[in-house]
Specification:
The complex is a heterotrimer of chains A (about 350), B (about 525) and C (about 300).
Chain A: E1 3-8, E2 11-16, H1 21-27, E3 73-74, H2 79-93, H3 110-117, E4 141-143, H4 153-161, E5 167-170, E6 177-180, H5 196-200, E7 206-208, H6 209-214, E8 221-226, E9 235-241, E10 244-250, H7 262-266, E11 281-284, E12 287-290, H8 293-311, E13 316-319, H9 326-340, E14 345-346
Parallel strand pairs in A: 1-3, 13-14
Antiparallel strand pairs in A: 1-2, 4-7, 5-6, 8-9, 9-10, 11-12
Chain B: E1 13-17, H1 21-24, H2 26-37, E2 41-45, H3 51-55, E3 58-60, H4 67-80, H5 86-92, E4 93-94, H6 96-103, H7 108-115, H8 119-131, E5 135-139, H9 141-144, H10 149-162, E6 172-175, H11 182-187, H12 204-214, H13 227-236, E7 241-245, H14 249-252, H15 256-265, E8 268-273, E9 285-288, E10 297-300, E11 305-309, H16 322-332, H17 342-352, H18 361-364, E12 369-370, E13 394-395, E14 414-419, H19 437-440, E15 445-448, H20 450-456, E16 463-467, E17 472-479, E18 487-491, E19 504-507, E20 514-515, E21 519-525
Helix pairs in contact in B: 4-7, 4-8, 4-10, 7-8, 13-15
Chain C: E1 3-8, E2 11-16, H1 21-27, E3 73-74, H2 79-93, H3 110-117, E4 141-143, H4 153-159, E5 167-170, E6 177-180, H5 196-200, E7 206-208, E8 221-226, E9 235-241, E10 244-252, H6 261-271, E11 279-282, E12 285-288, H7 291-294, H8 298-307
Parallel strand pairs in C: 1-3
Antiparallel strand pairs in C: 1-2, 4-7, 5-6, 8-9, 9-10, 11-12
Classes of the chains: A alpha+beta (about 350), B alpha/beta (about 525), C alpha+beta (about 300).
């Protein structure tokens, strides 16, 4: 493969031909801020946050769409670059609600990160502001188009990851907005609420309804695990606050990358549902009565033992579970064969 | 699956048969969409015009249960037009002649009569499949939940071997498994005839190995009962006691009324679950189990990838992890079963299971591993049958079309098929309690074709009574041409529409899978 | 000791006589928000965010200054209580800058916590806003009186050191403000920058200047260290971001003793990956110099180097 060597902030970097300046810089461990860039999505070059200075070029080019060439000299944080980034942030903030106070993405927001990093505290540009109503009529996703910075990641994620193209850019200029066809709410569109747009949104425009109203981003611990629904085996992170699962977020899954479906991302509510069984129950006179573990285990052991003694092991049968772990299925067949003494164990693979 | 999920995107021809992938396996469907964006041809065989069918380059809207006729006709075209992979068939397979003989009568024209798919379409699809560099077949319960389910799978395998579309990257036969750990439950020997890793209980050496490892004098040699046989045994009084962990056969099994009757006849039933399911309600003892978020363990997904499940929170209330409960009961029955952690159990599994031997929790920290993984240095196996099949040569198992066990007639003129919805899962015990999914999709309906609706004088939103020879349910009608004329469809997610009261428990004689995809019903408007 | 039993949200709780309702609730694991309350300094009852409903009492009393009595019934999240808290938050926010975006306390701010908890998204009341200049004339503490909610914790903790009492409430009504004597900047007062006030401030009114711009609260890993400069044993926290120690802040004073600036600066030198450089006055101007030069050790180091 052909390679090119360029200089970034005085460092020599050699990368394969075709590599963008952004990727070259990141490989060299240099930071460049981005909003619209995503390694999994097509290059877009819309937000201009990643501009760098390359002597000889007419303007400050967007590093995410500029390919590295032999001998190129790049400055990622020259005064001109910083000035440009500050102006971009000021312009974005001129039309962005200042409500980090209660925003669900506070603490996990690129606009906030970069505003802090570049010391952009207020918007010097007054002017008209969007005042779109909040869209929260579905139980999964809250859309606040006032917070949208039009990076287009959701549009590309919907088209390129989910293959649905539910949302796209609509209107022009100041009125430009991400909408489903005919600017209806998501609930009236063909959206299947996979939430993959939410997973890529760099700001607070798209938020998980349950998670972002239950906890601040810095309050949660994330535990990587495997989805309990279908056989695909998507990985995701359970978000935990105070020993409660408050939501699910994407991580880099072996099978799924960041993609999830509506059940995986939004189907965690059963964990803390009041219908959960929390204590052993023993049926007495046709009614369930709460029991201790000792009582229940003793009774089960005794009854199974009695039937085995009286009728032989093959009068017992066990249904194991395609929902439980390997370890549990292993122990269940071990129990059935070694303790009960029968091979009558099955599960619902056939359904 | 013979291949990995990611390899679907690398196929240039995908035949998806009996799989409503976008709804039942949404994230796998993304790979099919990706392949299509890269120029692959997608052919979907399904009686319903699902979203997947809408995406397809060709939708084969075959009659329910006519899969073998379609697949054999494709083989017929491929053989008669000399499109088969002669090198692969010669080197890797046997009994080609018997296949050739059997499919000879399945001309596209003959298959057209059975399947309802035009002969020319069958020819085009067969040519496309045979000529593709990398062709993959995806299927799910639409293929297996028939009395000829095993034969359907044979027909699929025959086609793949005929064209050499197996044993290489991006090409294979890929059943998409419906439950998170159905693969793992099978791998772990939660089956009546095998121990872990499909080591048969009938083989003396296997019994010796396990009895030694488990420290018992003897292990039973006779294969045990399957689910359906257990229910029949219970009804007959031969099975007296059952222990059910994390399953809800009252809603998931066919002929639900019969299942309830059978379970009620037991002397003792213990059910271990996270909710008081319809099945648990019948139990003598109910044991509260921990959910996946409350325990450590592993799941094996449909592509044989073993992945970690990690404990995120403590069990709710006094619930315990299923593995701990099993240990408690075994110990109380005089068989001391104690493990410090799930990881220790896994080590025992690895020591007894050649295909899992190289997997450990330490390795899984770095990512999932696809079995077979025979030793600690083995990277795992993304696709199977690379240089040879497990049995050596791939055997063609020619199969004949047989019609479903129960076809519509004068009294029950419609075909009922059942399946899944995007927003729900299985018997709904989890998805009906999320505070989100059931809010969005809160009630089930019956899909009915406009022509049938008009004939029956059913309007959109009407409550109808649907009856089969086994039972009946009331359900709201949705008039849609997603279903063809003569067919109705609904899911088994909603207890209030307990559709398995109607379905036919007639089973495939080999795999014992019930024919949930076809039974005869009638629909009556309720005023 | 005599005990009293009361019910809080229907749960029976028994506490020693003299215990406040707030402490009784907290012992029972019941959450009550507070701004002005601090277990280590005298009771104040100013902010009213801790109000609870006690049937029979005239108003909603502040739980931090109400003692539990036998048979008392307390409701900590009744509709009336929630309504009152929301109104308090709305009133506070009506005169509070909405700049969490870059505020150093974002993520560790009680006003923000409670606004999120009670879903108070907007001020609700419009009116005059304070517009005080930022007091950042000293190298240690940034004071932003616009963000002050007048909880008085800084005043009370400063007054707890008898010879300090550098700050107190000044002016009246809307103009009330925490001030030094004569309302000078902190840099011109008797303040010795022990930082007790910063450690107790529940909002963004007082912030550590050396930490400004160094990272967000949620990005910081914290490690407790005990100061060894004297025998008081004050506890400090070393803050690190991305594996790099970026700041030292006081956590709690030693028993009966104040915190001090000396301790913190010493610990900064000891723990920080990039400690602030020393300055030496040369020709009447401060110039940044090396530690060797500042400590007058250049000659000795040179000799050591030559030997090596």
């Amino acid at each position: 493969m052909a390679e090119v060597t360029l200089t970034i902030n005085g460092l020599q970097v050699t990368v394969p031909k075709g590599t963008t300046v952004l990727d070259a810089a990141r490989q060299a461990g240099l930071f460049i801020p981005t909003f619209c860039h995503d390694p999994e999505l097509t290059r877009f070059g819309a937000c201009r946050m990643c501009v760098v200075e390359i002597p000889g070029m007419r303007n400050l080019p967007a590093s995410c769409v500029t390919e590295a060439t032999e001998g190129m000299v790049v400055h990622t944080d020259s005064p001109a670059v910083i000035e440009a980034r500050k102006t971009i942030l000021e312009l974005m903030l001129a039309n962005h609600p200042m409500d980090c106070l209660t925003c669900g993405k506070n603490g996990d927001c690129r606009l906030q990160d970069y505003a802090y990093m570049y010391g952009v505290k207020t918007e010097p540009f007054g002017g008209e502001k969007h005042n779109y109503p909040l869209e929260d009529d579905n139980p999964f996703i809250v859309r606040d188009m006032n917070k949208c910075i039009l990076c287009g990641k959701c549009v590309r994620a919907c088209a390129e990851i989910q293959g649905k193209s539910i949302v796209d850019f609509a209107y022009r200029g100041f009125d430009a907005k991400i909408t489903p066809a005919m600017d209806v709410p998501l609930s009236e569109s063909e959206c299947v609420f996979c939430g993959n747009c939410v997973a890529v949104c760099p700001v607070g425009a798209l938020q998980e309804k349950g998670l972002r109203s239950a906890a601040r981003t810095w309050e949660v611990q994330k535990v990587k695990t495997t989805c309990p629904y279908c056989g695909t085996g998507c990985n995701f992170e359970l978000n935990v606050k105070d020993n409660q699962v408050v939501g699910v977020t994407s991580c880099d899954g072996d099978v799924n990358g960041r993609a999830l479906c509506v059940k995986g991302r939004f189907g965690y509510g059963f964990i803390h549902h009041p219908d959960r069984l929390t204590t052993p129950l023993i049926k007495k006179n046709g009614e369930f009565v709460e029991a201790t573990w000792d009582e229940a285990i003793t009774l089960v052991a005794q009854k199974l033992g009695d039937i085995k003694d009286k009728y032989g092991p093959d009068a017992l049968a066990v249904l194991s579970s395609a929902r439980c772990t390997n370890e549990e299925n292993y122990l269940m067949q071990k129990f059935t064969r070694a303790v009960l003494g029968t091979n009558s164990i099955d599960h619902c693979a056939r359904l | 699956m013979t291949n990995s999920i990611g390899e679907i995107a690398g196929a240039d021809f995908i035949l998806a048969i009996g799989t409503n992938t976008t709804e039942s396996h949404p994230v796998i469907s993304l790979q099919a969409k990706k392949a299509q964006r890269n120029g692959a041809t997608l052919v979907v065989a399904d009686p319903r015009r699902t979203e997947m069918a809408e995406l397809a380059n060709t939708h084969l809207q075959l009659k329910s249960g006519s899969d073998i006729a379609l697949l054999n006709a494709m083989a017929n075209v491929i053989i008669s037009e000399e499109l088969w992979n002669k090198e692969f068939v010669a080197n890797r397979t046997e009994d080609f002649e018997s296949l050739k003989e059997t499919v000879a009568k399945y001309t596209p024209e003959y298959a057209e009569q059975i399947t309802g798919i035009p002969a020319d379409t069958i020819k085009t699809v067969a040519r496309g499949y045979a000529k593709a560099n990398n062709a993959t077949i995806l299927y799910t319960m639409g293929v297996t939940q028939h009395i000829c389910g095993t034969h359907n799978v044979f027909a699929v395998a025959n086609l793949a071997m005929l064209c050499g579309h197996i044993g290489k990257e991006n090409s294979g036969v890929n059943p998409l498994r419906g439950q998170n750990n159905v693969q793992g439950a099978c791998d772990m020997g939660a089956l009546p005839n095998v121990y872990t890793g499909y080591q048969a209980v009938t083989v003396d050496d296997n019994r010796t190995k396990f009895s030694k490892a488990w420290n018992v004098a003897e292990l039973p040699a006779q294969p045990g009962l399957t689910v359906g046989e257990m229910m029949e045994g219970a009804a007959d009084g031969k099975v007296k006691g059952m222990y059910i962990m994390g399953e809800n056969p009252v809603l998931s099994d066919p002929d639900a009324d019969h299942v309830v009757h059978a379970l009620e006849k037991l002397e003792f039933l213990v059910v271990q679950d996270i909710f008081l399911t319809e099945t648990a309600a019948l139990a003598d003892v109910v044991l509260p189990a921990a959910s996946f978020a409350e325990k450590d363990g592993t799941f094996s997904n449909t592509e044989r990838r073993v992945q970690r499940v990690r404990k995120a929170i403590d069990p709710v209330g006094n619930a315990r992890a299923d593995w701990e409960i099993i240990c408690n009961i075994a110990t109380a029955m005089g068989y001391p079963m104690q493990y410090a952690s799930a990881s220790n159990i896994f080590d025992e599994i690895a020591s007894l299971t050649p295909s899992y031997a190289g997997i450990s929790y330490a390795r899984l920290e770095l990512g999932g591993i696809q079995w077979p993984c025979p030793d600690a240095d083995h990277p795992g196996t993304p696709y199977l049958h690379k240089d040879k099949f497990v049995r050596g040569l791939g055997k063609f198992n020619p199969v004949e079309y047989i019609p479903p066990a129960e076809l519509p007639d004068q009294d029950y003129p419609l075909v009922l098929s059942t399946g899944r919805r995007h927003f729900h899962y299985h018997t709904g015990t989890m998805t009906q309690r999320t505070g989100a999914l059931e809010v969005h999709y809160g009630a089930e309906h019956l899909e009915i074709n406009p022509a049938d609706a008009a004939a029956l004088n059913v309007a959109e939103g009407d409550t109808v009574l649907m009856k089969s020879r086994r039972g009946q349910v009331e359900v709201t009608a949705r008039i849609t041409d997603v279903v063809p004329r003569g067919m109705v469809f609904t899911s088994f997610h909603f207890p209030e529409v307990a559709i398995n009261k109607l379905t036919n428990p007639a089973r495939d004689p080999v795999a014992k899978i019930p024919e949930l995809k076809v039974c005869a019903v009638k629909v009556i408007t309720v005023s | 000791m005599s005990y009293v039993s009361l019910t809080i949200n229907g749960v029976m709780v028994t506490v020693p006589k003299g215990t406040t309702v707030l402490n009784a609730a907290r012992e029972a694991g019941v959450f009550i928000p507070t701004f002005c309350h601090d277990p280590n300094i005298p009771r104040f009852g100013a902010c009213r965010i801790c109000v609870v409903e006690i049937p029979g009492m005239r108003n909603l009393p502040a739980s931090c200054v109400t003692e539990a009595t036998e048979g008392m019934e307390v409701y900590t999240e009744s509709p009336a209580v929630v309504e009152a808290r929301k109104t308090i938050l709305e009133l506070l926010l009506a005169n509070h800058p909405q700049d969490c975006l870059t505020c150093e306390k974002n993520g560790d701010c009680r006003l923000q916590d409670y606004a999120f908890r009670y879903s108070v998204k907007e001020a609700g009341f419009k009116g005059e806003s304070k517009d005080y200049p930022l007091d950042d004339t000293n190298p240690y503490i940034i004071r932003d009186a616009n963000k002050c909610i007048l909880c008085g914790r800084c005043v009370r903790t400063c007054n707890a050191i008898p010879d300090r009492s550098v700050i107190d409430f000044g002016y009246r009504g809307f103009n009330t403000k925490i001030v030094t004597a004569m309302d000078t900047p902190l840099g011109e007062s008797d303040c010795v920058y022990c930082g007790r006030c910063v450690t107790v401030c529940p909002v963004g009114a007082l912030a550590w200047k050396p930490l400004a711009g160094k990272g967000r609260t949620w990005e910081m890993a914290r490690q407790d260290v005990t100061c060894t400069f004297c025998d008081s044993g004050c506890v400090f926290e070393v803050l690190s971001k991305d594996g790099k120690n970026v700041g030292v802040i006081p956590k709690a004073s030693g028993n009966g003793r104040p915190l001090c600036l000396k301790g913190r600066l010493g610990l900064e030198l000891k723990y920080l990956d990039d400690p602030p450089p020393p300055y030496l006055k040369k020709d009447g101007e401060f110039a940044q110099v090396s530690w060797a030069e500042a400590l007058g050790l250049e000659d000795i180091l040179a000799k050591l180097d030559n030997k090596g």
